Structure to design on (376 residues):
């Protein structure tokens, strides 16, 4: 799977998993803590306080197992230079690492790619008059061959018997890693993704009916795949399994991103509850539910953080409101919906500003919910 990556090397007793030499880098330390989540999860808002803990050094680097070629592992290792200060642990935040599926599979589909690209090139070069690669060769020859190559390289035996990213990470780290997974309600996450990505309202309609049509189509397609291949295989390889699934609009990607079980099952099997902590985002952003709250920062630092988060969240929600409003021009209530939620959102044409309700992650979640309700 990773020809130049060592298997469970001898780590030092340092706080981070450090080695004297790793793929030509001497000495070197890898991140000890990974925050893994997904898009539209509000994981940064709910777990951002981890980065403020004394002794934690947050680093921005490429996600593990997300390099295109066999030499990519060396680049990933070098991305974590320089050595951290003594006694400080490295924390990495990677949304993409939680799940793997064809659009964002990283190394998981590398064997598929190594088979498919040469086959496509050969097939196009040998097309007969009147033949078309996409009609006559892609699904008849190259895609099945690539899938067979993937299965041979990664395995098909189920949990613990396939080279999924958690088990590749386990081979490198052993027990010297800690993972925090933040999961949001799949229904809320799916609704947010529909409004934030303009291509969904544009295709299905910027309305409650459009959202319903989108969800109906996507869940039906994924359910059909599950009936034939099982949920695990469909979550990992959906559009690579059959032309029918490849033709589904955006390949059920938002459905799969909220289908946590097959992915978390592998993470738990690889690391167990000792190294993996799975949290509900709602428990972290809604106070009073029994989840320990982070230590209180000085007032000035709290205000600076709120401004930064509020500005980012306001921009995200405002863009969604503009997209929805653009699709509703000519309707009597277009301006009311564009302004959003009874004035909670700033008018679409106004100068950018931070709405008061966007001062916290809880406010962001509430505004997204209100945005969906106002369009129903």
């Amino acid at each position: 799977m990773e020809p130049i990556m060592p298997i469970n090397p001898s780590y030092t007793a340092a706080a981070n998993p450090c080695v004297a030499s790793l793929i030509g880098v001497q000495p070197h330390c890898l991140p000890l803590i990974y925050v893994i989540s997904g898009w539209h999860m509000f994981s940064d808002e709910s777990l951002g306080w981890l980065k403020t803990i004394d002794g934690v050094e947050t680093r921005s680097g490429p996600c593990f197992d997300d390099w295109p070629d066999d030499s990519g592992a060396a680049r990933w290792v070098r991305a974590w230079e320089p050595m951290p200060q003594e006694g400080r642990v490295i924390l990495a935040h990677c949304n993409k690492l939680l799940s793997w599926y064809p659009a964002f599979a990283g190394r998981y589909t590398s064997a598929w790619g190594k088979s498919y690209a040469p086959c496509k090139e050969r097939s196009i070069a040998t097309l007969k008059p009147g033949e078309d690669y996409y009609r006559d060769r892609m699904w008849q020859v190259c895609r099945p061959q690539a899938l067979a190559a993937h299965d041979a390289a990664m395995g098909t035996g189920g949990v613990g018997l396939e080279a999924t990213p958690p088990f590749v990470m386990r081979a490198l780290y052993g027990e010297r890693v800690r993972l925090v997974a933040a999961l949001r309600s799949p229904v809320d996450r799916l609704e947010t993704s529909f409004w934030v990505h303009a291509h969904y309202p544009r295709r299905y309609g910027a309305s409650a009916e459009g959202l319903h049509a989108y969800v109906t189509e996507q869940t039906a397609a994924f359910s059909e795949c599950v009936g034939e291949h099982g949920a695990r295989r469909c979550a990992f390889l959906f559009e690579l399994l059959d032309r029918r699934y490849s033709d589904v609009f955006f390949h059920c990607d938002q459905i799969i991103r909220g289908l946590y079980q097959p992915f978390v099952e592998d993470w738990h099997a690889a690391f167990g509850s000792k190294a993996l902590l799975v949290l509900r985002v709602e428990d972290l952003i809604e106070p009073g539910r029994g989840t320990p709250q982070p230590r209180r920062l000085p007032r000035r630092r709290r205000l600076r953080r709120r401004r930064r988060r509020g500005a980012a969240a306001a921009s995200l929600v405002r863009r969604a409101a503009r997209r929805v409003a653009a699709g509703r021009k000519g309707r009597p209530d277009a301006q009311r919906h564009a302004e959003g939620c009874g004035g909670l959102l700033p008018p679409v044409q106004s100068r950018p500003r931070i709405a008061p309700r966007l001062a916290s992650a809880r406010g962001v979640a509430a505004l997204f919910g209100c945005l969906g309700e106002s369009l129903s």
Remarks:
- The chain has four domains: 18-100+164-183+263-277, 106-154, 186-256, 303-376.
